[in-house]
C-alpha cells in the first residue's frame, strides 16, 4: 500500500544531536514500522531549516520536505496562512508523480494540508490530532496558548476526514462531541520503544533518599506546581523535574523562577531539583533512577511519559485523565487520582514511597502492560487495518 504521512506542524521539538521527540517521533516510528511491513511510505513535512535536504530515505521510508513558508521554525499561528500552499504542492506532486492510496494527517495543520491536497480525488484521509484545542482550552483555561483559529479549523477538519484516530478514550468522547459519528473514530494508542525503555540498564545518579520524577515542559499546564505543593506531605524525598530549556538557560526561564520561588515559600526548596532538558535517548536512565514517576499535567492526550516510565518498571502516580487514565491501571501499575487533588497526591506519594513491596509489584505489572498493549508493532498493526478499511470503502465496486 502507498501511504502518505503529512506533518505540516513546525513546532515539533527536536534536539540537535538526538532523535525526534513528540509528534515527529510518533510519525517516524509509524513510518518505519509500516515500511518494514512492505508498504511504500512517504512522510511530508515542511522544510524549516536551510541545511535540510529536500529528500531523504530513513529506516525504509522517504521524507520529502515541502518548500512552503519561511525556511525556519515558526509558531503554529504563523504557519496557518501557508497550509493552502502546502496542500497545493502535495496535489501537484501526487498528480505528476507517486500518489498515495491513503493519506494520514498529523496534528491539525497537517490534516488541513492533507485535506486540501486530496479534495478533488478519491484518496481517503485519516487524521490524528495528537491534541485537541477545545480540550486544552477546557483544562488549561487562561494558560491555553493556541491560536484563535485552531478550534474552528479543527471542527471543520472533522467534517472532511474519513476516519479520526484518537489516542485515548477521553479523545474519542471529545471527537464525538465535536460532531463525528462514533463509527468514524478509531482508538489507536501511541507506542513505546520497549528496547529503549526497559527495566534493565543504566540509571542516572541519585541521592539515598527516595526520588519522585516529573517529566514535561516548563509551563503551568504541566502541573509541576501541584507536585511542589504536595511535597509538604511527602516527607524526606526529592522531586526531580526534567524538561524545559537546557540547564544553562534555566535561570532566565520565567517558569523555573516561579517554581523555585514556590518551593521556597512552601519550605521544600531543598527537596526540589530542576534539571532542564534531557535528550530523549537518555530519558530511560532518568526513569530507572526514580522510585515513582508522577504525571500531573492539566491536559494529557497520549500519556507518553506514563507509558515510558511503566516500560522501565517504575510505578506511576498520575491524574486520571486522557492517556494517563488509559495507561495506568489503578492499584495494579500505579495509582490514579482526581485531577488537582494535591492533598491526596501528597499522601499517596508518601505511602507508596514507604511501600517497597507495593512498588515492586506495580513495576512488574507496568512492564507487562506496556509490552502487551503499547508497543509500536501494535500501533502499526491497528493503523494498517484502518488504512485497509478506508481504502476498501473508497474503491469503486466493479459492475457484474
| Cα-atom radius of gyration | 22 Å
Shape: globular
CATH topology call of the largest domain: Rossmann fold
Structurally, the number of domains stands at 2
Main beta sheet, described? 8 strands, mixed
Q: What average pLDDT do the residues reach?
A: 92
Written overview of the protein:
The protein is α/β, with parallel strands linked by helices and 400 residues long. It has 2 domains: 2-191 and 376-393, Glycogen Phosphorylase B (Rossmann fold), CATH 3.40.50; 211-373, Rossmann fold (3-Layer(aba) Sandwich), CATH 3.40.50.2000. It contains 15 helices and 14 strands. The chain has helices at 23-36, 76-79, 83-96, 107-118, 133-140, 150-158, 169-177, 224-234, 254-266, 283-288, 304-311, 322-327, 342-353, 356-373, 376-394; strands at 2-7, 40-46, 55-58, 61-66, 102-106, 125-128, 163-166, 185-187, 211-215, 238-242, 272-276, 292-295, 316-319, 334-337.
Describe the structure concisely:
Residues 205-357 form the Glycosyl transferase family domain. This protein has 400 residues and is α/β, with parallel strands linked by helices. The protein has 15 helices and 14 strands.
Amino acid at each position: 500500500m502507498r501511504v502518505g504521512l503529512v506533518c505540516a506542524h513546525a513546532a515539533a521539538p527536536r534536539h540537535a544531536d538526538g532523535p525526534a521527540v513528540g509528534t515527529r517521533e510518533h510519525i517516524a516510528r509509524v513510518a518505519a514500522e509500516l515500511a518494514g511491513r512492505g508498504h511504500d511510505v512517504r512522510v511530508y513535512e515542511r522544510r524549516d531549516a536551510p541545511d535540510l535536504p529536500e529528500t531523504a530515505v530513513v529506516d525504509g521510508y522517504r521524507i520529502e520536505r515541502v518548500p512552503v513558508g519561511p525556511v525556519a521554525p515558526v509558531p503554529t499561528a504563523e504557519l496557518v496562512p501557508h497550509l493552502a500552499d502546502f496542500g497545493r504542492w502535495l496535489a501537484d506532486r501526487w498528480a505528476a508523480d507517486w500518489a498515495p492510496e491513503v493519506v494520514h494527517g498529523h496534528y491539525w495543520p497537517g490534516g488541513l494540508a492533507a485535506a486540501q491536497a486530496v479534495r478533488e480525488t478519491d484518496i481517503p484521509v485519516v487524521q490524528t490530532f495528537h491534541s485537541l484545542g477545545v480540550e486544552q482550552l477546557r483544562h488549561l483555561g487562561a494558560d491555553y496558548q493556541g491560536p484563535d483559529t485552531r478550534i474552528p479549523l479543527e471542527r471543520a477538519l472533522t467534517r472532511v476526514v474519513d476516519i479520526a484516530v484518537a489516542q485515548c478514550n477521553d479523545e474519542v468522547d471529545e471527537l464525538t462531541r465535536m460532531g463525528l459519528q462514533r463509527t468514524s473514530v478509531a482508538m489507536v494508542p501511541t507506542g513505546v520503544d520497549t528496547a529503549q525503555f526497559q527495566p534493565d540498564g543504566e540509571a542516572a545518579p541519585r541521592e539515598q533518599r527516595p526520588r519522585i520524577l516529573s517529566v514535561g515542559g516548563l509551563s503551568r499546564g504541566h502541573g509541576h506546581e501541584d507536585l511542589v505543593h504536595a511535597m509538604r506531605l511527602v516527607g524526606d524525598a526529592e522531586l526531580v523535574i526534567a524538561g524545559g530549556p537546557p540547564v544553562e538557560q534555566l535561570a532566565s526561564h520565567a517558569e523555573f523562577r516561579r517554581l523555585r520561588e514556590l518551593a521556597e515559600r512552601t519550605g521544600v526548596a531543598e527537596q526540589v531539583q530542576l534539571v532542564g532538558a534531557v535528550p530523549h535517548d537518555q530519558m530511560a536512565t532518568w526513569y530507572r533512577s526514580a522510585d515513582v514517576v508522577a504525571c500531573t499535567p492539566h491536559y494529557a492526550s497520549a500519556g507518553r511519559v506514563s507509558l515510558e516510565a511503566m516500560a522501565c518498571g517504575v510505578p506511576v502516580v498520575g491524574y486520571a485523565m486522557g492517556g494517563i487514565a488509559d495507561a495506568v491501571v489503578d492499584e495494579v501499575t500505579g495509582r490514579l487520582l482526581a485531577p488537582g487533588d494535591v492533598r491526596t497526591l501528597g499522601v499517596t506519594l508518601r505511602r507508596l514511597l514507604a511501600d517497597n513491596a507495593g512498588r515492586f509489584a506495580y513495576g512488574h505489572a507496568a512492564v507487562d502492560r506496556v509490552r502487551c498493549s503499547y508497543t509500536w508493532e501494535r500501533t502499526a498493526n491497528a493503523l494498517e487495518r484502518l488504512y485497509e478499511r478506508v481504502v476498501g470503502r473508497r474503491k469503486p465496486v466493479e459492475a457484474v
